[in-house]
């Protein structure tokens, strides 16, 4: 795919642009977001699945406008603004925390559909373990593979593939989703990363070399899971056209991205 010559921050396109336009009017619940961001997409998935009214506010987190910094001093997206009775703004950040918050607050299943964390305490705890695993293993490996060069990048590739195999062992064998028939929070947390597989094929020459049926039962389970994520309507509705992601990910792959996250990875600090 040729990378478009875009120097400025591009805009959302395709299905995502349509979805954002539908949520552009004033609402008490506000999401400060960047259209390209996988962490933002997690929150969008929850809002979309539960059909929660909210206002979508696009900000460029690399320029960190004052409106964002006033809410979140680290200037990261997603930042959610929660309405209060006295009209003050209460911000929330960290995508997985926001997702759990929304699942708890919009919990009436007759209005908002199935809960995203299981009712059973053991299953709920197990889901949280694997959500944490995505944050502590899969995401760092994702960035290491994408941003680093040579041996460091190879270590990222190895860790990424090995950790998705571990995650795959935990997927319900019948599926298609992590807990079975219905999507749940682990799918929301890993879905946007699965949806960005092509980034590695494009920039790291991976050539679609992901775990699959040729690697045995777990590979087959993962392959089936990837198809479920890619065919998931909520993912499709919140994703832009691929070409629009290219210039942004190219900066990461070329190791010139200036975001806090990119710098933390390069300097070997914990990622924000
Ligand atoms: N751990 C955070 C990560 C959020 C994050 O890193 N967002 C990126 C965009 S994908 C961002 O705002 N980057 C701006 C920067 O790093 O300066 C979460 O899960 O919400």
Automatic annotation (TrEMBL):
InterPro entries: Glutathione-S-Trfase_C-like (IPR010987), Glutathione-S-Trfase_C_sf (IPR036282), Glutathione_S-Trfase (IPR040079), Glutathione_S-Trfase_N (IPR004045), GST_omega (IPR005442), GST_Omega/HSP26 (IPR050983), Thioredoxin-like_sf (IPR036249). Residues 27-110 form the GST N-terminal domain. The keyword Ubl conjugation does not apply. It holds the Pfam family GST_N_2. The keyword Oxidoreductase applies. CDD domains: GST_N_family. GO terms for molecular function: glutathione dehydrogenase (ascorbate) activity; glutathione transferase activity. GO terms for cellular component: cytoplasm. Keywords: Oxidoreductase. This is Glutathione S-transferase, nitrogen catabolite repression regulator.
């Amino acid at each position: 795919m040729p990378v478009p010559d875009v120097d400025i921050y591009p805009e959302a396109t395709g299905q995502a642009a349509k979805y954002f336009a539908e949520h552009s009017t004033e609402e008490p619940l506000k999401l400060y977001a960047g259209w390209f961001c996988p962490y933002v997409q997690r929150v969008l998935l929850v809002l979309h699945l539960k059909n929660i009214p909210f206002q979508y506010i696009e900000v460029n987190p690399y320029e960190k406008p004052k409106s964002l910094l006033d809410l979140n001093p680290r200037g990261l997206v997603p930042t959610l603004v929660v309405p209060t009775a006295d009209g003050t703004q209460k911000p929330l950040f960290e995508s997985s925390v926001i997702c759990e918050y929304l699942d708890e607050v919009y919990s009436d299943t007759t209005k908002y559909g199935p809960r995203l964390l299981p009712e059973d305490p053991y299953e709920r705890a197990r889901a949280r373990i694997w959500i944490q695993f995505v944050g502590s293993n899969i995401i760092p490996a994702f960035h290491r593979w994408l941003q680093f060069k040579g041996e460091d990048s190879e270590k990222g590739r190895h860790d990424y593939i090995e950790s998705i195999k571990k995650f795959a062992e935990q997927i319900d064998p019948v599926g298609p989703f992590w807990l079975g028939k219905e999507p749940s929070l682990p799918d929301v947390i890993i879905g946007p990363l699965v949806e960005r597989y092509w980034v590695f094929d494009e920039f790291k020459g991976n050539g679609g070399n992901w775990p699959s049926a040729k690697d045995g039962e777990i590979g087959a389970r993962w392959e089936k899971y990837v198809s479920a994520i890619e065919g998931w309507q909520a993912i499709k509705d919140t994703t832009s056209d691929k070409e629009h992601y290219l210039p942004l990910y190219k900066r990461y792959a070329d190791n010139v991205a200036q975001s806090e996250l990119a710098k933390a990875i390069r300097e070997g600090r914990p990622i924000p």
